[in-house]
Amino acid sequence: MGDDSGERSDLEALGAKIARARGDEPGAKQQASTPPGAGMGDGLRVATEFVVSVIVGSGLGYTIGSFLGAPLVGLLIGMPFGFAAGLRTAYRGMVKANAAHNEEDVPDGND
Amino acid sequence: MGMISQLLPSWIRPQAADPMEQFEIVEIFPIPTGEGAINLSYTNASLWMTIVVLTALLFFTLATKRLQLIPGGVQSMGEVAYEFIAKMVRDTMGDEGRQFFPFVFTLFVFVFLCNLLGLLPTIPGVPLELHVFTPTSHIIVTFALALMSVGLVVAYGVFKHGLGFLKLFAPAGVPIWLLPLITPIEIISFLSRPVSLAVRLFANMLAGHVVLKVFAGFVGGLLTAGGVLSAFFIFPLIGVVGVFLLEFLVAFLQAFVFAILTCIYLQDALHPSHH
Asked: For residue B17, what pLDDT is reported?
């Protein structure tokens, strides 16, 4: 993908032009950064991810356990790992959501 | 139910009866395959996915047909859709993400139209094969889509970083002695991605449609109950209208969540070491 730097600068120039045109226009409205109900979506997302992590962890533990001849031991080990994975996913998701929320005012925040 | 079947016209009866009937797969053009083989028949699910693809094709053909500086109705709808996804891709993945735009856009449009067209009311009296059907209310459909997303993440990650992609399971800044604990957690967290993508979309669509049908069933039930009870039909009716409107929001929101999570996962494929 290294050969499209010319194309990219063209794109940037066009973007700047559009931004300028928008800025000049008195009725230009700020672009909505989050769709309606995104908060609800975030909440439900974390909930499903957490539940699914516990189930996947348990299932994985059970499967590995069955190969080793002790499915229940595997299940008992897998479940807390799934729980931890769920917590980690939820935590990471929330950190990202907060960061995005705080950065909302800054227009060109790239990481 | 005996009471209802006597009072209602015949074409309402089968619909009022069973809230799960709308999810039944019906073969339209059966393709005979052997015993125990995969059934390749063209079903109502296939029909509605075809309708979705044709609708998308028609819409974007119209939207891009006569491009004008000051866009008309269809063109500006197309532009809003394009800009919405383009901004999402840019915000999550930066400039490098541009190569994934076609994939994310296709995914978003397909899921959104599946959800949206599934909300069309069924014309009363048409055969079961032609009932309105929501492909995304079947977990096998959403799981296939989720596997595509995660498959692309793995394929691109391995192609771009080789074994370095495995850094995804050993986040930067974690002390060595913690790795035996963190790595299985990260692996489980990675494996649960396609499952949670699939389950979320499927569960939302399934639950929404069941609730609609159940509330609609209450309306019919109360109307045929007779006497004072019949007057109460207005409450489930208000409910069903409210839920129906909410379903439009859910149809959009779930497509949005599917697309943005795909972007977030693809970001991991671009930079496996810091996430």
From this structure: 59
The tens digit of pLDDT for each residue in A75-94 reads: 999 999 999 999 988 888 78
Would you say the ipTM is above 0.90?
no
- Smallest Cα distance from A45 to chain B, Å: 7
Give this prediction's pTM: 0.82
Residue in B94, B188, B203 nearest the CB of A82? B188
Question: CB distance B188–A57 less than 8 Å?
Answer: yes
Spell out a b/e string for A75-107, using b for 16 or more CB atoms within 10 Å of the CB, else e: bebbbebbbbbbebbbeebeeebeebeeeeeee
**Measured in Å, how far apart are chain B's first and last C-alpha atoms?**
56
The token pair at A69 is 């001849």
The shortest CB-CB distance from A45 to any of B96, B189, B200 is to B200
